[in-house]
Amino acid sequence: MAKDDQFVNQIADIDTDFPRWYTDVVIKTQLVDYGPVKGTMVIRHYGYAIWENIQKELDARFKATGHQNAYFPMLIPYSFMTREAEHVEGFAPEVAVVTVGGGEELAEPLVIRPTSETVIGEMYSKWLQSYRDLPILINQWANVVRWEKTTRPFLRTSEFLWQEGHTAHASEEEAMEETMKMLGIYKEFAETCLAIPVFTGRKTEKEKFAGAVATFGMEAMMHDGKSLQAGTSHYLGQNFAKAFDIRFLDKDGTHKYAYTTSWGVSTRLIGALIMAHGDKRGLIIPPVVAPVQAIIVPIAAKKPGVLEAAADLKAKLQAAGIRADADVSDNSPGWKFNEWEMKGVPLRIEIGPRDIEAGKMVLVRRDTHEKTEAPLENAAETVQALLSEVQANLLELARRRKEERVVTAETVEELLRGVEGGNFVKAGWCGCRECEDKIKEQTAASARVIVEGEHAEKCVCCGKEAKQVVLFARAY
Amino acid sequence: MAKDDQFVNQIADIDTDFPRWYTDVVIKTQLVDYGPVKGTMVIRHYGYAIWENIQKELDARFKATGHQNAYFPMLIPYSFMTREAEHVEGFAPEVAVVTVGGGEELAEPLVIRPTSETVIGEMYSKWLQSYRDLPILINQWANVVRWEKTTRPFLRTSEFLWQEGHTAHASEEEAMEETMKMLGIYKEFAETCLAIPVFTGRKTEKEKFAGAVATFGMEAMMHDGKSLQAGTSHYLGQNFAKAFDIRFLDKDGTHKYAYTTSWGVSTRLIGALIMAHGDKRGLIIPPVVAPVQAIIVPIAAKKPGVLEAAADLKAKLQAAGIRADADVSDNSPGWKFNEWEMKGVPLRIEIGPRDIEAGKMVLVRRDTHEKTEAPLENAAETVQALLSEVQANLLELARRRKEERVVTAETVEELLRGVEGGNFVKAGWCGCRECEDKIKEQTAASARVIVEGEHAEKCVCCGKEAKQVVLFARAY
Q: What PANTHER family has UniProt attached to this entry (chains A, B) (predicted)?
């Protein structure tokens, strides 16, 4: 059995058993492990390093648009949940409840935040006095808990990490502008950093956030043609402002309710990039968020000078800001090649006695498997340029899939055929919940986003006049 | 009433009512607020920005010493707590317990981590196979919950943020080396970044971490002469390794238990720097961790060119990596001076029409109130140099207090007089728990650390032979 096959055989076939491929890959590359409590995950350091890179990129974007970080308590009085009618209906069934603290039964049970609109609303109500205090632009990096029956690492776990932005504004226009601005930041981030082009748009009433006036989402197409909701931005109108009495004294001397928004992305994004870019050999991590961007593998490592040259090269690359590492373990080069391919490192650099003598290195791209030689001089520039090419190519591949795999349907049968073929399907919709439910029932596809600027004549389901064009897909 | 007094009067007098001064300052400078659930806090953005700076500094030090970040589940099966006898005794009384999830009573109650030795021990047991896997050097940034009866923002709250390092090693020597290395990093960080010189040393059996073989702590002297435990590093021996079966196959072919450590600091450090450096006007935040290092106050802001000059200067300082801001609100300069003094910004820069004409700015240090003029040219270098001076001076002031306020005692009466005078007290101790308890009872002082390299003849309490010299103090 060839070395290659040993590794490929460790993971299920990506095209015939994608769910199993996913589980194999996330566990074997040590991104994640199962926690002791059912439905929980341990984010191992290789996975957490991706999250740190995501945080760094997003946090810079939030701060550049005037947001500041804060931290709100995780434990929320149960009664807060009930103040906004839709909110409690949506979240009460999935909360974890603390009933005992310090050895005593609590007078009022506390929920572990599933999201923080309620506790943050309570504080904004206290802090907000005058129109001069607006807008309030705050973000929080935190853990949240939602009790889930069926879980999968990164995609759906009872506890996960995320950021949640919560803002308050004087007018509907401003709040809506904020909602769309943050959706735009998520989209730009997904494309620039994760190399994932996304569909964005408004969600249907059925799919919106519990308590929002309108939810806007971004949807990413995965390897199997299913969709993953990768981020959402909610316009909350005055729903939470009324429930928590978030009011301000306006210029005209009257008290008014504020308009609020919330928006979030989570460790789910790690699942998204795995399922968007992986191949049969394992992960392919976009360079911008890769924990290791370039792995140096010394060839004939025991020959004099080889380990030193590898260490020199590593230092040179690191000094240029490249996340480089050298694998100096006892494993064979072939074993290392396969392991680092499985771990999705975008660039492999081989360096052996003959290369050193010739003053060169061998570079192998993870995405195309293309092998090139380059002088050791200017190594950092060469590596940086190649990493940019990998990043651009991953985006291009994902963009091509996203464009090629969208079909239209005029009947539910066509819609079914479309999603079964691994496509997103655009179809007319009358706007009624019954048709949306029926489509879900018959095709296992849900309305991902409402498509702006396109028109259809008839509803794909009931045949009545279409009010909107909707993008349907099966989803994670 | 002078402007100055309006502000000073907002906060209690630092010398006659320090506890009230503390509460006034943390609330009025908007570092923190009380959460809706008793004992919880909201870390507002001005406070959270200090935490972000602390995180950045510490995280770089952890990574430079080979540690990597990961994330472990917050919910821990109750039974895990009971596996290590001392651990459960210490922590069980203060845990928050989840008994309901997803609308159903849980089969086994879950505790919200008060600390993560147990859940991390369980994972290390699974991951650790061979001596080649050692050492394991992992850190986690997380929230923890400990049910507390008496709480105070930053100092003691039911939920707080911290980092907890958890490492596993092949030998006692290595684990002890790690324990002391991390204590050293904490000490260096406290002095370099927080401008707080600390006493470090081993804790007595009574004061050690529940489940540790030995705890080493760092103690910081506050404005009122009381001590604050600002960080701890624990040598856990094989206690948790045996409780959680953390074993490895050693070179000699036998299975051995690992030796583990844990170490942590928390948002308590924010309380430490407030109580170490504040004065009657409010906070004094050391420049290295200050959210705003230099605040620009335009004088005669409506005169042409003033706001532009302030904006230019801000941009110039920010470009040089200085956290500068300009207060362009409608408030009067006097009001701004006082507000930013209360908020502890290390440097104020005044710029008005005459300054602009003369190409200069006025600089006022928060620590010494010293006022100087400097050319606008090279502003960044000037400001950077002054910030370094402020940082050095704060450390020097704290160091002087730390040295001047340590006395020795040969009787419990002397010890009492010492701590009542706002001092730390060195005294001989026989090593028995009875004397330690009696001293606490009679003086309200506890053993902070055991002093290395010093000797005393008699125990301050029973008069028998002293085995150790102990540093006693009243503590937060």
A: BIFUNCTIONAL GLUTAMATE_PROLINE--TRNA LIGASE, PROLYL-TRNA SYNTHETASE
Q: What is the pLDDT of residues A67-119, one digit of tens each?
A: 999 999 999 999 999 999 999 999 999 999 999 999 999 999 999 999 999 99
Q: Which of A141, A171, A400 is nearest to A265 (CA)?
A: A141
In this structure, are residues B111 and B81 in contact, taking their beta carbons and an 8 Å threshold?
A: yes
Is the pLDDT confidence value at B115 over 50?
Answer: yes
The neighbour count for residue B109, using CB atoms within 10 Å, is 18
- Give the chain A residue whose CA is nearest to the CA of B80: A36
Residue owning tokens 């850190």: B139
| Rg value, chain A, Cα | 25
Q: How far is A410 from chain B (nearest CA, A)?
A: 39
Cβ of A75 within 8 Å of Cβ of B40? The answer is yes
> pLDDT band at B10, cuts 50/70/90?
confident
Mean pLDDT value across chain A: 96
pTM of the model: 0.97
CB nearest to A68's CB, from B45, B93, B102:
B45
Residues A428-474: tens digit of each pLDDT: 999 999 999 999 999 999 999 999 999 999 999 999 999 999 999 99
Nearest of B380, B170, B421, B206 to residue B293 by alpha carbon: B380
Residue partners of A348: CB distance under 8 A and separation at least 6: A294, A295, A297, A337, A340, A341, A363, A364, A366
Report the b/e string of B411-435 with b at 16+ CB within 10 A.
Answer: ebeebbebbeebbbbbbbbbbeeeb
Residue with tokens 């040295």: B403
- As a whole number of angstroms, the distance between CA B89 and CA B93 comes to 7
Single-letter residue type at A93: P
Q: Is there a contact between B123 and A33 if contact means CB atoms under 8 Å apart? A: yes
Decide if B28 contacts B342 (C-beta within 8 A).
yes
**pLDDT of A107:** 95
Distance CA B170, CA B164 (A): 20
- Cβ(B172)–Cβ(B53) under 8 Å? no
Q: B220 CA to chain A: closest CA distance, Å? A: 26
When scoring A98, A131, A140 by the number of chain B Cβ atoms within 10 A, the one with the most, hence best to mutate, is: A98
For strand B324-326 and strand B255-257, is the pairing parallel, antiparallel, or unpaired? unpaired
A240 and A116 Cβ atoms separated by less than 8 Å: no
DSSP string across A432-469: -HHHHHHHHHHHS-EEEEEETT---SB-TTT-SB--EE
Does the structure show a pLDDT above 70 at A4?
A: no
User: Which value does ipTM take for this structure?
Assistant: 0.96
Separation between Cα atoms, residue A233 and residue A264, nearest integer Å: 7
B27/chain A closest Cα distance in angstroms: 12
In B174-269, DSSP assigns E strands to 198-202, 214-221, 227-237, 247-249, 255-257, 259-266
Q: Do A97 and B96 touch (CB under 8 A)?
A: no
Omega prior to B153 cis, within 30 of 0: no
**Where does the pLDDT of residue A10 fall: very low under 50, low under 70, confident under 90, or very high at 90 and above?**
confident
Partner residue facing B97 (CB), from A35, A76, A100: A100
B72 contact residues in A (CB cutoff 8 A): 35, 42
- State residue B9's pLDDT score: 67
- What pLDDT does B196 receive? 98
Picking from B71, B93, B127, the nearest residue to A161 by CB comes out as: B71
- What was the pLDDT predicted at B7? 62
Chain A residues with CB-CB distance to B147 below 8 A: 101-103
Mutate to test the interface with B, among A51, A54, A67, A72 (most CBs of B within 10 A): A72
